Amino acid sequence: MNIVRKDLDQSNAVVTLRIEKADYTEKVDKTLRDYRKKANIPGFRPGMVPAGLVKKMYGKAVLAEEINKLVSDNLYKFIHENNINILGEPLPNETEQQTIDFDTQDEFEFVFDLGIAPEFEVELTKKDKVKYYNIAVSDEMIDNQVKSYTGRYGKYIQEEVVEEKDMLKGELLEMANGKVNEDGLKVQDATLTAAYMKDADQKALFVGAKKGDLITFNPAKAYVDETEISSLLKISKDAAKTVDADFQLKIESITRYHESEIDQTLFDKVYGDTVVKTEEEFRAKISENIKEGLVADSDYKFGVDVQEMLVAKYNNLAFPDKFLKRWVLSSNENLTPETLEADYPKMIADLTWHLLKDKLAKANDVKVEAADVDEYAKKMAKAQFAQYGMVGMDDEIIANYAKDMLKKEETLKNIVDKVAEEKVFAVIKETVKLDYKEVSIEEFNKMFEAK
Hints:
Blueprint: E1 2-7, E2 12-19, H1 21-38, H2 51-81, E3 86-92, E4 108-116, E5 129-135, H3 139-152, E6 155-159, E7 167-176, E8 179-180, E9 186-193, H4 200-204, E10 214-217, H5 219-222, H6 226-233, H7 237-240, E11 247-258, H8 264-271, H9 279-313, H10 321-331, H11 337-363, H12 370-387, H13 395-405, H14 409-431, E12 433-439, H15 441-446
Helix pairs in contact: 1-2, 3-9, 12-13, 12-14
């Protein structure tokens, strides 16, 4: 086999593979012999099918398969051994590639276009300045988190007098002419909450009522949605549309949710036994947790700004534009040339950043170890638990959850990529000049609003 590379310019090359009969004959013959041993053709015993018949039946397909394998294996071997940093995938040349005829040819020539990544070095110094936003933890943020915890760890208590948000339970009877309709709807253990009623007058009938009281109200007036009526009366939505009668509820129970007191019981539920002992320590711990979460937001913004800075700094890299557009269109059948033209600048910016990251990683010997992956997975697990207010979780629980996450191939790949990117950002932080600025969460969020 003969392989020749011809550079058209710094971004484009053509590779020609010439395959001779000697390159494939032995493998084709061996495959056909294997076919002959296994062939099950009527009129012939297994293994006794004439070689000529087997070749006639399968020879062309076997030859094509072997040639394609030779081309693929040797093309990528050539690219790897010659350290050619290609973009996308090799594409058949549109002008020099001749038609292949496996019936008549015994020598073949394949011509491929290659898109070559630009050659450059990334140079960063303290002259490169990037803002880093420290987000201040406000009293309001701490108050909101305290409120979240007291709400989450509260409890239900039976009451005697109804308030708007209480859950009421009792027997519900349909009325007619001011009396209970013996043939009407009856709902045992009906439940309702006055706060969900849209009509203020109907809602007022319940607020201030006592356990044991009989309340007459009209569901059709109280609620505007037949879904709520059907749920209350345990009937279909279609039937709920026709309901216009009054109903009587005998209040059998009044259940109210009481938020937790800010005391040792709450501290222990949130952070574990005796980790926090005073409200001051509780708020300080919450502030610390919020700040940890905000660091991730600050790092994200730093990453966005670094990417924009570096892409702008290296915006003159030469790319094989024609090749890349052809490759993208061939890889995405739903993409149109018009859409590609509109998206192409963003695609090049993303590709530039990808090349910059790779350059920085190699130049700084960035490696992703198994321990790095495990630690990042644990960090993700903690963050997911924290979203539901589950902080201070046992290390073993976190470790097992992280281990389960890493069993998913896609999750593992994403974590490896994120760890590598974080290490690159860490290198950049040490190399450029950070312009620190403290901002409020409101100011920070405004930075992401559409311009």
